[in-house]
Amino acid sequence: MPRRTFITAEEKRLPGHKPMKDRLILAFCSNASGDCKIKPLLVYHSENPRAFKAHKVIKENLPMMWRTNAKAWVTRQLFIDWVKVCFGRTVRKYLEEKRLPMKCLLVLDNTPAHPPGLEEYLLAEYSFIKVLYLLPNTTPLLQPMDQQVISNFKTLYMKHLFQRCFQVTESTNITLGEFWKDRFNIVICLKLIDLACLRWLTSYIIGTSMGLEVSAVDIDEIIEEHHEELTTDDLKELETMQMSGINP
């Protein structure tokens, strides 16, 4: 939830509702080209939120790996589970499909959730994964996910969040406080996360990898007009064309 909205002024008028304290953690991972889609790890404080039952949500079908912790923290065990269940399987399948060498380097910063000696916890079938831990205080400079990737996702998420808020409150007599209380829950949050991830991934592949500036309008048009995603081969071909002085 955003920290500074009208909900702060109305919080005392919403008995039993504490949206400001409701939070989750979302951990991202991507390869350099952005075309290896690894499910993010999502940690929430409730294993089975009431909204899941109302909307008949099946956690195994979510576009992220759903895990819980009382404080919505990423613990070492949760992170290890994610590496085994999502990261390892996805990377192996990706390398096999692309006929690439069975090699992978996982770059991690020094947060408590990233256990030292992570390779020791990996299954034998994932022995091709090597782990590199960044030095302390270097994350803002070296960690790829910190190079505007996370901030861009947050921007897109907030954009979709407030778009939904304005659409509901403008077309009905529902107040902003009623929206936060009755029309916004974890299920809606997950849908917005998925939507923001789609926009973020598209802009990351096209903008970051190709050195282009892509606006939100451009991203929307691309998604609507093109259903096929750029592959590693496509990116290599475009890079070769650029190096040859050809404007794709």
Strand-helix topology:
Blueprint: H1 7-10, E1 25-27, E2 41-44, H2 50-54, E3 65-68, H3 76-97, E4 104-108, E5 129-133, H4 139-142, H5 149-171, H6 176-182, H7 186-208, H8 216-225, H9 232-243
Parallel strand pairs: 2-3, 4-5
Antiparallel strand pairs: 1-2
Helix pairs in contact: 5-7
How would you sum up this structure in a few lines?
With 248 residues, the protein is mainly alpha-helical.
Which features characterize this protein?
248 residues, disordered N terminus, 9 helices, mainly alpha
Task: Explain the overall architecture.
The chain is mainly alpha-helical and 248 residues long. The protein has one domain. 44% of the residues lie in helices and 8% in strands. It is built from 9 helices and 5 strands. It has helices at 7-10, 50-54, 76-97, 139-142, 149-171, 176-182, 186-208, 216-225, 232-243, and strands spanning 25-27, 41-44, 65-68, 104-108, 129-133. A 3-stranded mixed β-sheet has the order 1-2-3. Strands 4-5 form a two-stranded parallel ribbon. Strand 2, helix 2 and strand 3 (65-68) form a beta-alpha-beta unit. The longest helix is centred in the middle third of the chain and has 23 residues, at 149-171. The chain is globular. 13% of the residues are buried. Mean pLDDT is 77; it is low at 3-8, 205-214 and 222-229.
Q: What is the count of DSSP helices, taking H or I runs of 4+ residues?
A: 9
Biggest sheet descriptor: 3 strands, mixed
Instruction: Estimate the helix proportion, in percent.
Output: 40-55%
**Approximate shape:** globular
Helix-strand pattern: HEEHEHEEHHHHHH
Mean pLDDT: 77
Strand content: 5-15%
Radius of gyration: 20 Å
Number-wise, the strands total 5
Order of strands in the sheet with the most strands? 1-2-3
Q: Are there runs of 5+ residues with pLDDT below 50, and where?
A: 3-8, 205-214, 222-229
Q: Note the gap between the termini.
A: 41 Å
